[in-house]
UniProtKB/TrEMBL annotation:
Cited PANTHER family: ENVELOPE BIOGENESIS FACTOR ELYC, INNER MEMBRANE PROTEIN, PROBABLE PERMEASE
Protein name (record): YdcF family protein
Keyword Protein transport (UniProt): no
Domain of life: Bacteria
GO BP field: Gram-negative-bacterium-type cell wall biogenesis; peptidoglycan metabolic process
Keyword Transferase in record: no
TPR repeats: 106-139
Alphabetized InterPro entries for the sequence: Cell_Envelope_Assoc (IPR051599), DUF218 (IPR003848), Rossmann-like_a/b/a_fold (IPR014729), TPR-like_helical_dom_sf (IPR011990), TPR_rpt (IPR019734)
Organism: Metabacillus sediminilitoris
Annotated keywords: TPR repeat
Length: 380
C-alpha cells in the first residue's frame, strides 16, 4: 500500500508538473515544485516490480528533461557513486538504469542515444545505435540516425555505409530522406538577412516570429525583444502580411506568443493581423503548429524571423513541416521561405559560418520533425 501511494503521488505530480501548456502550471509555487522534485527523487528499491522500476526511471528522466531538479539529491539517493553535472546527466543515467533493467527494449536505447546527442556525446550515441543494430540490423531508424550523425561529425564513410543499408531496407523511404537531407544542406548554406528582403509578395505572405523562453516573472528576455524588432521592421514594410507569433511555454500565466502579441500591439500593430501559435514547446513544435496555421490561412510565402544562431535549424524544420502538411493534404509542397535574423554574432560573416555542433542539432531536429521521436512514446 505504501508503494501504491507513492506511485499515485508521483503520477499526480507528473500530471500537474508536465502540463507545460496550461496556465495552472505557471502558478505553481516554489515550495510545491521543490516537493515535486523530492517525490521524483524517491529511491527506487529492488523489491519493487521490474516494470514499475523501469517506469519510475522513465518518469524521472522526463521530469528532469523538462524541469531539472535537485542534482545533488539525485546523485546521493539514486545514482550513488556517479557525479552528476546537470539535468541531462540525470536523464542519461535514468535511461542507463532502465536499459540495464530491460536490455531488450530498443526504445529505451533510442532514448539513451538521444540524450547523449543532446549532450554532444556523439561517439557514445553512435555506440548506442550500434548496439541497437547488433540486435536489429534491419532497423531503419537506427541506421538513419547513425548515418546522419556520422555525417554531422564528418565521418562520410560510415554515412555512405548507412545510406547503402537504408536503400536495401526500404529504397523509397531512403530516397525520401536523401531528398530531405539535400534540402537541409541547401538551407545550411543560405544567406542570412539582417534587413527585410525586397519584393516580398503583397498578399498570401506571413511573417513568423519564433519565441524565446520568458523570464520566471513572465517578462521577455533580450533575444525575444530583438526578434520582435526584426519582425516589426518587416511588418511595417509589408502592411498586408499576417504575423504569426509562435511559442507556448507559459511563465506566470502568459505564453511567449501572448507576450509577443502584446508587445507588437503596443508598437502599433493591429490585433487582427496577429495570429497566436501558443502551444509549442520547442523549435520542432514551432514549425508543426505554425504550419498548420499557414495551411489554414492559405499562405504560400513565409518570412521566418529568429536569431541568426537559430535560423538554419528553424528553416530546416519549417521546410520539413511544410512538406509533411502538403503530403497530408495530397498536394505538392510549394511554400517559399525567406529569412530575417537578429544578429547574435559579432558580425554577419561569423553568423554565416556553420559548426559541426550546429549541424548535429539541425539534423536532430530534421529527424524529429519527420516523425522520428527523440524519446519514443514519451517526447517528440
Amino acid at each position: 500500500m505504501k508503494y501504491l501511494n507513492k506511485k499515485l503521488a508521483l503520477a499526480l505530480v507528473l500530471t500537474i508538473s508536465t502540463a507545460t501548456f496550461s496556465t495552472a502550471y505557471a502558478a505553481v509555487s516554489e515550495p510545491t515544485m521543490a516537493a515535486n522534485t523530492e517525490t521524483v527523487n524517491t529511491a527506487i528499491k529492488n523489491d519493487e516490480p521490474t516494470s514499475d522500476r523501469i517506469e519510475h526511471y522513465k518518469e524521472m528522466a522526463m521530469y528532469y528533461y523538462w524541469h531539472g531538479g535537485d542534482i545533488k539529491q539525485a546523485e546521493k539517493e539514486i545514482f550513488k557513486g556517479i557525479t552528476l553535472k546537470g539535468k541531462y546527466d540525470v536523464v542519461e543515467n535514468a535511461f542507463k538504469e532502465a536499459v540495464l533493467l530491460d536490455p531488450y527494449d530498443l526504445d529505451l536505447k533510442f532514448s539513451l542515444a538521444s540524450t547523449q546527442i543532446i549532450q554532444k556525446k556523439t561517439s557514445e550515441a553512435l555506440g548506442t545505435y550500434e548496439q541497437i543494430l547488433n540486435l536489429d540490423p534491419e532497423n531503419f531508424n537506427a541506421n538513419l540516425l547513425q548515418g546522419l550523425y556520422s555525417k554531422a561529425i564528418g565521418d562520410n564513410s560510415s554515412y555512405k555505409n548507412s545510406i547503402s543499408k537504408l536503400k536495401q531496407i526500404d529504397s523509397k523511404k531512403a530516397n525520401e530522406y536523401l531528398q530531405k537531407l539535400e534540402t537541409t544542406d541547401s538551407v545550411i548554406n543560405e544567406k542570412l538577412n539582417t534587413a527585410p528582403p525586397a519584393n516580398l509578395p503583397q498578399k498570401d505572405h506571413a511573417i513568423v516570429i519564433l519565441g524565446y523562453a520568458l523570464a520566471e516573472d513572465g517578462s521577455m528576455k533580450e533575444p525575444l525583444i530583438e526578434r520582435l524588432k526584426a519582425g516589426i521592421a518587416i511588418a511595417k514594410q509589408y502592411p498586408n502580411s499576417k504575423i504569426i507569433v509562435s511559442g507556448g511555454v507559459p511563465k506566470q500565466g502568459i505564453t511567449e506568443a501572448d507576450a509577443m502579441s502584446n508587445w507588437l500591439q503596443t508598437q502599433g500593430i493591429e490585433k487582427d493581423r496577429i495570429i497566436l501559435e501558443n502551444k509549442s514547446t520547442d523549435t520542432v513544435e514551432n514549425a508543426l503548429f505554425s504550419t498548420e496555421k499557414l495551411e489554414k490561412e492559405g499562405i504560400k510565402d513565409v518570412t521566418l524571423v529568429t536569431s541568426a544562431s537559430h535560423i538554419r535549424r528553424a528553416l530546416t524544420v519549417f521546410n520539413e513541416a511544410s512538406d509533411f502538411y502538403a503530403k497530408l493534404n495530397g498536394k505538392n509542397s510549394d511554400r517559399d521561405f525567406t529569412n530575417v535574423v537578429y544578429l547574435d554574432y559579432p558580425s554577419i560573416e561569423e553568423a554565416q559560418k556553420v559548426s559541426k555542433d550546429e549541424i548535429l542539432v539541425i539534423y536532430r531536429d530534421l529527424l524529429r520533425t519527420s516523425g522520428i521521436w527523440q524519446y519514443p512514446g514519451l517526447q517528440r
